[in-house]
Specification:
Keywords: Aminotransferase, Pyridoxal phosphate, Transferase. It contains 13 helices and twelve strands. The protein has helices at residues 9-15, 38-47, 62-70, 83-93, 107-115, 135-141, 163-175, 210-213, 227-236, 244-253, 257-280, 300-309, 335-350, and strands at residues 25-26, 77-80, 98-103, 119-124, 147-151, 179-183, 203-208, 221-224, 284-285, 292-296, 312-313, 328-331.
């Protein structure tokens, strides 16, 4: 069975019993190609001293930095050891209840919900290129649901649904006492300003520091919601669950506005170039607003294996409901890696 996440390409070769080439280009993960902000690297020796002390029990100074960043009170923020911990806490909140997932989407939602005996209903977006939410089907299901999960922008397609549709889902959910969990892990790549937490008490926004700031090894995420929701999540979280180095690095990352803008511009340029190239090859390509592109070639599995033999690891979609392995995802990398990718694609499509 293929790994259910990107990154760690050696696991892909092991699962397929393939000998990896000497040089591997990993396009399966979608972390900022720039790496952590230079100032974080420069200051890292200063963070080492934090190992000697217990982290702040409230999560300071990162907690206040997040509250200021989103213009919300501190009591509306809960921190997590990565966004993955937040989703585990949310799954406990919905234990033995009904939750609606809009597929294809991040597989971690279903994994955490199933572990808490949640009954999952899946609605599949029929056209992943336009990513129109199935509003009528959602409306029919909401009266029976404790929550609906929306991944905006979507993972794995990178598409952003129309704001009018998002607003419609939020409004309908309120009428039925259904909470709306919005995963904004990739919103940093598109628009960091639009949020729904200031308008609605039943919306829970989940964010990750991993993707934009390229710190997946640190594990840092957070959620913003109404006070009573945040209090309930905090009661489930273990004490000192976010380490002191993560709190310090997360705080510093939020000051890196120029770094973020440069990363957005680089990703936007290369996403557009990749979309154009894949379209020229005759592929269906999603309208991604993130730092990755999802596309449907004539034979995804054959291309996936061909790329592996060339030392290029693409992200399969075997575990994404609705894509059924027929699509592939490519994360934007540095110029040299992108050149290797285009050369591989040329060889494949010329065949």
């Amino acid at each position: 069975m293929l790994p259910s996440h990107g990154a760690n390409p050696h696991y892909v070769y092991e699962a397929l019993q393939m000998t990896p080439p000497q040089t591997i280009y990993d396009f399966s993960e979608n972390v900022n190609v720039f790496g952590p902000p230079p100032q974080i690297i420069k200051r890292f020796p200063q963070y080492v001293d934090l190992v000697k002390r217990y982290p702040d029990p409230l999560g300071e100074p990162f907690l206040s930095a997040i509250a200021h960043h989103h213009n919300v009170p501190r009591q509306q923020v809960v921190l997590g050891n990565g966004a993955s911990e937040i989703f585990s806490l949310l799954a406990r909140r919905y234990a033995n209840k009904n939750v609606l997932l809009i597929e294809p989407t991040f597989a971690e939602y279903a994994a955490t919900l199933q572990a808490n005996h949640v009954t999952i209903t899946q609605l599949i977006v029929t056209d992943v290129l336009t990513w129109e939410l199935p509003i009528t089907a959602i409306q029919e299901q909401l009266p029976h649901m404790a929550a609906i999960y929306l991944c905006i922008p979507n993972n794995p397609t990178g598409a952003y649904p129309a704001r009018e549709q998002i607003q419609a889902v939020i409004t309908m959910a309120a009428q039925h006492g259904c909470e709306v969990v919005i995963d904004e892990a990739f919103l940093d790549w598109y628009d960091d300003t639009k949020t729904y937490i200031h308008q609605f008490n039943h919306v829970i926004v989940v964010r990750s520091m991993t993707k934009m700031y390229a710190i997946p090894g640190i594990r840092l995420g957070y959620a913003i919601a109404h006070d009573n929701v945040i209090n309930a999540l905090k009661q489930q979280a273990p004490h000192w669950h976010v380490n002191a180095i993560a709190l310090a690095i997360g705080t510093a990352c939020l000051q890196e506005t120029q770094y973020v803008e440069q990363a957005r511009q680089y990703a936007r340029l290369h996403v557009q170039q990749l979309q154009k190239a894949l379209t020229t090859y005759g592929c269906k390509v999603t309208n991604s607003v993130t730092n990755y592109v999802c596309f449907k070639p004539p034979d995804a599995k054959a291309l996936f294996y061909f790329a592996l033999r060339e030392g290029i690891v693409l992200r399969h979609t075997e575990n994404f409901v609705g894509l059924n392995g027929e699509w592939l995802r490519i994360g934007i990398k540095d110029e040299q890696s992108m050149a290797k990718l285009y050369a591989m694609l040329d060889r494949w499509f010329q065949k």
